């Protein structure tokens, strides 16, 4: 006998009746004589609806479950027939529009062509005629209500609850929460050096996830951990995916490192968590395998000893961590006491407490409802949300009738608490019932993307057009939000993804019944032929294809597999397409599909096609016959070379999802007549061409649903640009307007106008909607700013980019209240910016390659980033920037400030964090108060390049200094200034020596050795591309005395360097990197490295003449040694006929080795080494 809840037919009645009403309005049905058949079907629908709804309302519904199930099958079949008929009408109307209909008797031909559909309608009516008397014969048994009252509203509904109750404070569990937080902060919580873990266990719906989330988000832990990661494991469907867990932890720790291809995921994890105090929550773990925990624990062992892990699961032995076997903290959650449940219920149902229940006279009823929930917080919360929308006088009916009905069907050993969750489903409106039950197709633990799920709902017509001014997508999102509000979905912590509790997933499976199926193996057990939705969770489909093709009514094929899995369809697709003609959703993503068979044209009802992450090269023309298609996903298809020319036939297409790189590199022009796709929402690029060929700019006229970014190219070919109608596209947030290069322009087509006149007219006509947030104008040849920009009409504009606008001499912007970023580049004739720039929140101004520019604005109060590059005529910069970043590059005449300000840049700014000055020969100094009133902990960087002399104030804090492409005397001058930290008269100067941490020197061609006559308190020294460097340090003073705090020493590309200093290296050195020093033969005396008791990481790369390691070897502190492309060193440790080379004993005890031809390294890439190599790239 069918489950009564899954047999409910009412959710689809409303949907099919709406389709019937729309279909009857089409004139082709009248012309072809179909109208009478469709109206008769509509009448029979309404007759059968009255008696079936009465049966569904009956307390004895389960006694007619089979009859309801039969009715449901008939309605679904009717929907298929109606969708086929609607599609044929759509095709016929398209043919009439393009004049390809047969010239004689089109109505008669239409009826003849669709005779099978007519027969299908008659068959459905016959089935309804058979069902109606059978329902009526059960009238006495079911106590069916009279026809007049069927379908009437039973309850008065209150307004939907506000979002303020979405995330209420947890009721109860105070002691448990306090105990867990205490354990997380305890220092003595680890056992035998293992990672500290706490388990929270209990039955489903008891509140494990809620309690863990409360702890995770508690303000008492703010700043206590270096990193936090919440991972929803939900591994009930199979083995736990440890790789995914590792990857999410790595992402949460977000260290900057460069992994090697040979590194294992475990090694990368160890590196990522090293020294980090991590809070990790693993939610909803099912595995009881202790080995899985040990694997994770091994990856976390290098984390800070304050790292804590919380695991939630149903089993006391989750992860094999039974408290009987492993002495760890264990929090078992029992049922919530009745009093606490009542508090939770009152808050969710009436937004009050127990006293409010008494005052409203519903305390006794509330007690009864709460008792039914049996101490399960999830059940109490769900039913409380449900009753929030009910009039108080209906509560007793819900307790005595509805709960009794649902309890009869769910209160058994199999379904547990589903009776109360079933009640929440029972009271959903029909459209939400449909949407919820569809979610059963996804596996437990699936992370839902709201917008993607809405597209799937739309594909099945579960979201119908609204009379309100809202898109289908907006309406679908409203459905989703309502389901989330009723706790059917929960948002993942720190994520835009959503999850569904396992018990709610069980309910979805129950209500979807036989119509949904998840295929997990190549040879699945029998699939019900009436199945509508299939999810493929297997890597090979060919074995299951026979069973799948028996499902003639199939509507969905989804593949919710991990992205790194590849599904093999073999040679089954062609046959499947011929057989499964009712498919609405086809997901072939991450499969081995390289081409689509021509039988794709058989899928006339297809609304959603996903070909992402496949190797497909071409889309067949048959695709263009799928007029119902709404979503076409082509993400990460690197071999796809273009789109079919007939794409404009897909008049219902709403989402064309392709990466921007496809439009940029592989598709030079959009398909012709794209303007027919008036519902399309994303078109990244539109390339203007000949109007008669379907590429005119007027194609954009009616595409008013476009959203996101729009890039219009080759505007030099535009005629009647105003017809693009950009003002009526409020969802376009980013607009790029681009003209062709000067050599590509077709001057002859300008009809007597000069290029600047043509461009000015076009840009004026392309006024965007006032909601635009980013505008880029490229290669505009006009001489004036468009009025809609100069008059400040774009009041939401945040970013303005002007590039290659060769004739523009003055930029007029008007008042821009929200403009934050201005970037001006390659403007050859631009002479001035407005003296008073009315942009009160502007924080970034970048001006690049404007050779005639002579004037900047006089004041920009909030400016934080100022970059001026290649402005050959600019002599002075007003005092624009007071904090942030200053970059001055290749400005040959730039001197300083106007008026009475000093030309040596003093008093320029008070809180500049980073300053870069390169090839500005007339600038000789930096501001006297360059870093004044800044905290020492903040990172301050000064970069000097191609400058003869730069003065900076030694009394101000500076953390990083980089000198590039200068002469050695510039370095000596800088070192002399740095030394003033040490020898300054005031106490402030002495303190400030601790600020400088890093010194980087590169491309100093006449530097023979690094100067050591001053004591410099730096921790990192980087020397790169100094071609004349012969000795690492000079002989004036030992480097041990001049660099006493040096921790990181990195030398790269110094071809004349042959030896390290005889006196050894700085004593606190932890990292040593030597790369591309082709003449280096020795690392110094025998004890050079042995005496460095803090040395942990040594990297030697491309040193072909380096002959051996130091005689006394390495210190015991060394953890990681990397040797690459240094054959003489490698030979000393490699295997040979006599065993290992002579230097093998020197390195054999180092934990992590990366040496050519020695052994595969299990080592992580150490942060220090990788970051050092990275820093060289910029110097």
UniProtKB/TrEMBL annotation:
Keywords tagged on the record: ATP-binding, Leucine-rich repeat, Nucleotide-binding, Plant defense, Repeat
Record keyword Cell division present: no
Pfam families (UniProt xref): LRR_R13L1-DRL21 (PF25019), NB-ARC (PF00931), Rx_N (PF18052), WHD_DRP (PF23559)
Positions of the NB-ARC domain: 179-351
The organism's place on the tree of life at top rank: Eukaryota
Boundaries of every R13L1/DRL21-like LRR repeat region domain copy: 697-827
Domain Disease resistance protein winged helix: 441-508
Domain Disease resistance N-terminal: 15-92
Nucleotide-binding recorded as keyword: yes
Record PANTHER family: NB-ARC DOMAIN-CONTAINING PROTEIN, PLANT BROAD-SPECTRUM MILDEW RESISTANCE PROTEIN RPW8
Sequence similarity: Belongs to the disease resistance NB-LRR family.
Protein name in UniProt: Disease resistance protein RGA4 isoform X2
Organism of origin: Coffea arabica
